[in-house]
Write a structure and sequence with these properties.
The complex is a heterodimer of chains A (239) and B (303). Chain A is α/β, with parallel strands linked by helices and 239 residues long. Chain A is built from 8 helices and 10 strands. In chain A, the strands form 2 sheets. Chain A has a 6-stranded mixed sheet with strand order 6-7-8-3-9-10, with helices on both faces. Chain A has a 4-stranded antiparallel sheet with strand order 2-1-4-5, covered by helices on one side. Chain A starts with 15 loop residues before the first strand and ends in a 5-residue tail after the last strand. Chain B folds into 2 domains: 195 residues, no CATH class; 80 residues, no CATH class. The radius of gyration of chain B is 31 Å and the shape is rod-shaped. Chain B has 303 residues and is α+β, with helices and mostly antiparallel strands. Chain B has a 4-stranded antiparallel sheet with strand order 2-3-1-4. Classes of the chains: A alpha/beta (239), B alpha+beta (303). The structure holds adenosine-5'-triphosphate and magnesium ion.
């Protein structure tokens, strides 16, 4: 399982570290004084009411947004200091499942999943077996030639998850991966995330689905972070 | 840029990467626009090039042929004409820089005048001056000194070295060539502008695609390359077709003839036929530069 391997690189205390971070979109402060460290191999959930800033916080983590104050460090690099090309390289080390999936609608599922390989100049011919195995793992082997608009919600989420891990990143960030799927499918997706975590990957999942968090707690040691009143809190056992 | 990476760059530009080509969806409209613009511009460029070459040849020919020949006219009463002609020829032969001097015979003079007076005019009855053809050496003679000497010794002699009417002609041919060259530059510029517009339209139409590519870790160079390659190849093929039609048009023009003068000389000669082959390459270069600039600017604007 090539996509399941981790770099084995020594990452120090944290893979991703937010330090007294603040953010606003130009209006009022959306996040302020947010500090957290994601240790290698850890599993975190991020919750909070709709509009609290979950997606925003994730974007700050993978460098799609720049903090208005404070610092973001990824793999011991200050994200602010990265130029555009280095930022692209960072994105290859962090697998992201976007809230709205984001596919290229003119390419079949298999090519969408292979897109991170394509843009990093890898030879798809050599990755064929790896790709097929990944498709099997997410259960999309028989849908590989479908176009993204032809997929169901759950199929889209699984395809997005497959794309996020194809470059075997050390960190996987998923934004509402179970957003519009039924309970059974959400359990299936959770299962995939738990398996990735067992392979040693650092996982950060934003969700407002508390039943998903409860189900996960039976399988892995997961910490739950909650955005409340612009701050990030570690949720207790009340969940 | 090192020559090594440039070669690699050129290789990916020409051979390409099938997979990389697929990430940007084919866009019918901008593709056709680029093909058409490149074709039309190349067609026009062929004629501008033909005009520039022809006017260059014309300028050279006029300058060359006319520079070497001058005419000496002897206006003298009939009884002195032969003596003055003899004296003038003697002076001319002694003048350094004159290769040869020869008096026209009566028949030759009649032939020269025939177009104006009709054949069979009795020249003897008319006060026609005697003409002497002077062929210059290289370097030529000193016209002022020759005139002074003729004035003193052959009162009826007038030296007409053609400079007066030769210069404006040569000048006209030169400006015609300049105009043709300026036209080629304008054509290249207009094509660059059109391709910039088309590339910008394609980049805007594919904003979503570009965003997804960046999300999965594509670098700007990779994304730009996908667009640059397309536009460069389209410009190359469009211009090749336009050039072929342009050359066909030039080839179909009647061959150069004395009657047609300049117009029928509008064509390519010998190796000149290879020159238009540079037009598609120039078109591709223009497209490459235009698309690179457009992509760089637009991608730089994205976060
Ligand atoms: N690009 C933007 N420009 C301005 N405001 C924005 C932008 N993106 C998000 N916001 C605002 O910032 C706030 C937080 O948005 P965000 O998407 O982070 O919330 P969320 O916690 O992910 O919500 P949900 O659970 O609905 O996905 C919202 O009020 C949203 O309207
Ligand atoms: Mg969100």
């Amino acid at each position: 399982m090539l996509w399941g391997k981790t770099s084995g690189q020594k990452l120090g205390a944290a893979v991703i570290e937010l330090d007294n971070l603040g953010y606003n979109y130009g209006g009022g402060e959306l996040l302020s004084g947010v500090s957290v460290k994601l240790a290698p191999g850890s599993f975190h959930f991020l919750t909070g009411p709709s509009g609290a800033g979950k997606t925003t916080l994730l974007k700050l983590c993978y460098g799609a947004l720049t903090p208005t104050s404070g610092r973001v460090r990824a793999f011991n690099m200050d994200v602010k200091g990265l130029d555009r090309d280095q930022m692209a390289l960072l994105r290859r080390r962090v697998g992201v499942v976007h809230q709205d999936c984001r596919f290229l609608d003119h390419l079949p599922v298999i090519e969408n999943i292979a897109l991170p390989l394509t843009v990093s100049g890898r030879d798809l011919g050599q990755e064929e077996a790896n790709l097929r195995e990944l498709l099997n793992w997410v259960g999309l082997a028989d849908r590989s030639d479908a176009l993204p608009p032809e997929l169901s919600g759950g199929e889209r989420q699984r395809a997005a998850l497959a794309r996020s891990v194809i470059l075997s990143p050390d960190v996987i960030i998923a934004d509402e991966p179970t957003g519009n799927v039924d309970w059974e499918m959400s359990q299936r997706l959770l299962q995939l995330l738990v398996e990735l975590n067992r392979m040693g990957k650092t996982i950060l999942v934003a969700t407002h689905d508390l039943s998903l968090i409860r189900a996960a707690k039976n399988q892995v040691q997961a910490r739950v972070l909650r955005i409340w009143d612009r701050q990030l809190h570690l949720a207790g056992a009340d969940l | 840029m090192s020559s090594d990476s440039f070669a690699g760059h050129l290789k990916t530009l020409i051979i390409g990467d099938v997979q990389a080509d697929r990430v940007v969806p084919p866009s019918g409209f901008t593709a056709q626009l680029t093909l058409f613009a490149a074709g039309a511009m190349a067609f026009l460029a062929v004629f501008a090039l033909a005009l520039s070459l022809a006017s260059g040849r014309l300028a050279d020919r006029w300058a060359d042929e006319l520079a070497r020949a001058a005419t000496l006219r002897i206006n003298a009463p009939a009884e002195q004409r032969a003596a003055q002609t003899e004296a003038a020829l003697k002076i001319l032969r002694q003048t350094p820089g004159v290769a040869s001097a020869r008096a026209f015979t009566a028949d030759e003079q009649a032939a020269l005048l025939a177009p104006w007076f009709g054949a069979g005019v009795p020249l003897d009855a008319l006060p026609v001056p005697q003409l002497i053809e002077v062929i210059e050496d290289d370097p030529g003679y000193d016209a002022t000194g020759l005139r002074l000497r003729l004035q003193a010794e052959v009162p009826g002699a007038v030296l007409d070295d053609h400079t007066r009417w030769r210069e404006p002609l040569v000048e006209a041919a030169h400006s015609l060539r300049l105009l043709a060259v300026v036209s080629i530059l304008l054509i290249a510029g207009a094509m660059g502008a059109m391709i910039t517009l088309a590339a910008n339209a394609a980049l805007a139409a594919n904003a979503q695609v570009i965003e997804v590519l960046r999300l999965v870790g594509a670098q700007d160079g990779y994304i730009a390359q996908a667009f640059i390659r397309r536009f460069t190849l389209r410009a190359l093929s469009g211009a090749a077709v336009g050039m072929a039609f342009g050359m066909l048009g030039v080839w179909l023009m009647p061959a150069a003839s004395d009657e047609g003068g300049f117009l029928t000389g509008l064509g390519f000669q010998g190796f000149g036929w290879l020159l238009p082959l540079a037009i598609p390459l120039l078109g591709a270069l223009v497209a490459y530069v235009a698309t690179t600039r457009a992509a760089k600017k637009r991608l730089g604007d994205l976060t």
